[in-house]
Amino acid sequence: MSEFVGGDYVTVKAACELRPGTAPFFIPMLVVLLEHDEDLKGAPLSEAEVLARRDSASCIQMRVEDYIAMHDRRGPDLDPNNLWADWLHFKQTGELTYIPII
């Protein structure tokens, strides 16, 4: 995950402490990245692979209001802070429900 700050991106490890009122916006969505990786692998991803993919994904930090507006256009994604459990839930149910809470 990367954080957009004045035109600069930083890694997910540096962006873990999100500013209040912001949410990580992954481009492309985490679910799309993980489905692609799993298709390429031809087998289920491990927890370590899922978390490593999140940590290397492109992301910007958005105000929650802007995130929700984008969510309305493109739909929900996986929760990056509960990614493994959310990924397993998605694989079992096909449901995506993450909306950040301020």
Task: Give a concise summary.
With 102 residues, the protein is an alpha+beta fold. 47% of the residues lie in helices and 16% in strands.
Low-confidence blocks of residues: 1-11
Tell me the count of domains.
Answer: 1
Element-level helix/strand string: EEHEHHEHH
Strand order in the largest sheet? 1-2
- Topology, number of strands: 4
Let me know the largest β-sheet: 2 strands, antiparallel
Terminal-residue CA separation: 19 Å
Quaternary state, please? single chain
What structural class results from the helix and strand content?
Answer: alpha+beta
Number of helices: 5
Mean pLDDT: 81
Features:
102 residues, alpha+beta, two-stranded antiparallel sheet, 47% helix, globular, disordered N terminus
Question: How would you explain this protein's 3D organization?
Answer:
The chain has 102 residues and is α+β, with helices and mostly antiparallel strands. It has one domain (3-93). The chain has five helices and four strands. The chain has helices at 12-15, 30-41, 47-56, 64-74, 83-93, and strands at 3-5, 8-10, 22-26, 59-63. The strands form two sheets. It has a two-stranded antiparallel ribbon with strand order 1-2. Strands 3-4 form a two-stranded antiparallel sheet. A hairpin with a 2-residue loop joins strand 1 (3-5) and strand 2. The radius of gyration is 13 Å and the shape is globular. The chain starts with a strand and ends in a 9-residue tail after the last helix. The model is unreliable at 1-11 (pLDDT under 50).
